[in-house]
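Appendix B. One record, verbatim.
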Amino acid sequence: RDMHRELKAREAMAGNRPLKAVFARHELSAKRRRCAGVRGRPAFNADADAFSRASFPQFLDIDVKAIPAVPTIEAKIHFQLARYHFMGRFSENHEPNLPAALYHYQKAAQAGSIPAILALAKVYSSSSYHEDVLPNNVDLEDTVKAAALLKVASERGNCDAAASLAASYEKGTLTSVDFSQAVEMYRRYLEDYEKHTEGYTLGPKLSFGWDEHGIAPCHAMLSIADMLASGGDGLESNLKEAYNMYGEAAESFMSSMKAKLANQCYEKQAMLEGEIEWSDEEDE
């Protein structure tokens, strides 16, 4: 029965049919079996069923190097199953099956699903701000796993992952502080952001960022300028580049109707003018 349901799900995905319709039909079949005196209901995946009976939490080892560059069909199926388990669609009383949801998030991530990779990164990064994936009272923090997953997603062109990894290098939340890596990741984020017109979040259900809403380009520019101006933590100070970046950040803030932050950028830019001129005279 498990293989039959999985084949039906794959057929639905290949034919662009919604999984909801496939699962609804099987839910109806389960009700008919119960009315006929047949106890129990078939599990979609035997491994997930066993996992749900285990003590929570239980982790699966994700081989980051083996995650494919292009998501497989199984990636989308497992991600949808994770969402349905989280919403309680497969339980009799509509209660979320959190271990099964986590299981399928991990299976989807291993198969290359970027939303699943980000979902797990959110869960592993902190005990807060992941209620769209698992309840916030579920604490599964593992900063090493979170950073590794963010790196995978950023290498595949995901803006959220690049920005969040940059913020980690800047503030030391998941990794050690490294301004050089932070500036590199912020620049990668800005480049990817320009390529994708849809923006830097995956939508309200799975937006990723330390402020729950993602990291805006203007804030990334400001962070780059601040690090270039101060230097340190693996980054050599570059006042001229910082000066130019403050100007770009100010223009971005103005276009976002954030005049107060734009003025702060202009003030920092003005403070650098004298130092840049003094450095030029010294070089002469």
